[in-house]
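Write out structure tokens for BD-FAE-like domain-containing protein.
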Amino acid sequence: MMAELGPKWPDDTRGHVDIMIAEFSEVLKLASRAGVHVHRDIPYGSHERQHLDVFLPTAKVDTPPVVLFVHGGAFVSGHRNRTEQIYSNVLYYLAQRGIAAINVGYRLATHAAYPGATQDIAAAVDWARAHAHEYGFDPARVFLMSHSAGAAHAGSYAYDPAFSTPARALAGMIVVSGRVRIDNLAENPNAKRVEQYYGTDASRFEELSPVHHIDRDSVATFVAWAEFENPLIDVYCAELVFRLAQAKRKSPPMMWLPGHNHSSAIAHIGTSDDRLGKAIVNFIRNPR
């Protein structure tokens, strides 16, 4: 099915996303969830969307790092638990490998315009640091991982100095098929959704784009994207890699996922296709 949908992906991105989510939800029902203890639906703010789930390895691990995962949804939709299997597949995968993980919910454009979601990410990171000793993970090794529109919110937190203060410094940033540049171009099937969150003044989009803020001191970043992406997502991920390489004078770790699409890039984690998962775990253990 992926081979059939891939070349046609841009023709109906929303419909194809739904197909992939349904297909991978079925596949992931077979995935093991052993070795993980989950604390669900913990509030980190007063809004109903400001809740998170904490996934901890049950095996004894000496103060593991923690990864906060930020889901996508084109700014106006999406949920940290899109289905019972997605996006928890990412969190189970990490926790089974000795890494604490937090699935973060946040307010959508219908609840709060820019920078509401990034403020939520900041609050979730602050919550994680404040509760690190309670849950047994390392407050000095906090990572963000994001997919699709989630990378716009997480990327603003990670790279924009308005949010990425020294006191909130991350150990690393992981971007999977991320919208790290803001646009309302005709090529973008979610242009109107972008405008719901960021407004219609395109003259502001450059400054609001995470890639705009990359410099030599930007946090260590791993970038991955699929062969068949929502229009321009691959272009913007490649731009992020280029800007990081230019600023730091060294290419960041990255991965191009042949045969995968915008949804399978994240939904396949926890299946037998383990290449991306292993690379992410390696980056968390050795950010660079």
